[in-house]
What does this fold into?
Amino acid sequence: MSISEKCADFIVKYREKISRVFWGLLGISLILCLFVQVNYDLSKYLPNSSLTQQGIQKMEDSFGYPGTARIMLKDVSMGEALSYKEQIEHISGVDRVSFSTGSKSAYAPEFMEEKEKEKDLDYKDGNALFHVVFVKGDSDVQTKKTLREIESLLGDKAVYAGLAVQSKTVEEQVSSQMGLILALGLGFIFLILIIMTNSYGEPFLFLITILLAVGLNRGTNVFLGKVSFITNNVAAILQIAVSMDYAIFLLHSFETGLEKGMDKEKALSYAVGKSLSTILASSLTTVGGFLALCAMSFGIGKDMGIVLAKGVVFSLLTVIFFMPALLLRMWNFVEKTRHKPFVPSFKPLAKLAYRLSPLVLILTILFVYPLNIMQGMNDFRFSNGAVVKGEGTKISEMEEEINGVFGEENLLIAIYPEGRNDREKALGNLLTSLPYVENVQSLSSLLPEGVPEFMVPKSSLDLVRKDGYSRMVITLNLPGESQESYKAVSTIRQILKVYTGEDSYLVGDTTATMDMENILRTDNAKVNT
It folds into this structure.
């Protein structure tokens, strides 16, 4: 007797005990699902070699990296706007609110706001623009809770934009829509199984088996620390799609055993033994494909690769160890719900496919190169905003409304070694002269004339000078993701190094998206290879 036959006999003999173990593990996994942390910030997956990641680390170490949002109040007087500003400042989780000044950046300390206050750039035609800085980061749970409190306070008077708003919107949309998408996916799969099988009971048998494996996979994600929202929501449907055939193969092998005159237990042992090598080979190729994602420099590859590969392994184990007991329990139900085939025989189609196969091969060879060129012409989006800011979405409409009144705001933060104020001022003047730079703020450029640096309160000074580094806020009038924005970032990085040396960093939504795109294009070729 071979090893696979001995394993099959053991599994069939102890199938009920094994089944109870799986049900127990499922219960534990469903509880663990509640503790799986989900990451909604894709920039967290940038490798340490990324210039943006290095800049984020330096900024967090020296200044912190709080979340920000732009909030526009409509049809309010200046007095009402000031009252709302004060109420927002008292909400837990809000660090500060900038409003009604020439300084359009929420990162600016209060003493910087006085220089051009008479312009009232944050109040136009009855619209007030608040720049809110949160205590925590854009994707932090506390920040999202704070945003909800602000929304409750302002009601329908306000519209919102900014990275913190995008992160909150991603979570809300994914949470509400992925449940619907999963339900639709399962519904289509169930419908296909009903049509393609000869019993109404078979789809239930397959889905119970694979959904149990999905539950085990999701619960064990807790041991990975955090998973991305993309992984968390696509893993289930992909796991079902790639491993459903394992269950189908086992059932068909069982039916073959019965056709050979075996009793149920013997047929089941035969099916498990026959399926072991076949399903193992099939699953290992799938696992290998998913693990190839771990070769990506962008961290989401490892995140997705491990979760998806783990899901296939759980599907394999569930089909081989758990499904035999379920199959015998449900067999009478499967038999009683037999029906006539809903689809005709595929034998004529198989014969036609065989005759046409040489032509198909020739056409494949002829079209593979031009089609490969065409797929490379696809236009991809890489930013966090691309996930939620589709045409017609509420967040896009709100951002367009704010931009229509106050213009676009694309913030970059420059971090560089503390040095001479005159050189910092010259750097600011040069950057301001660039056509796509709307505003530049640093201590030397915004310190009121005649006010010495030592008179600035330490709490304000720490926002721009700390631990031997200075911080400059650069506002671009370009969108967050575009070739023009990427060229602007490259130019500013070069200027920054000329004026402040190699130990300088540039951080922002555009720099993260730019690095993400460059890394992912290289990763794509690596993973495919």
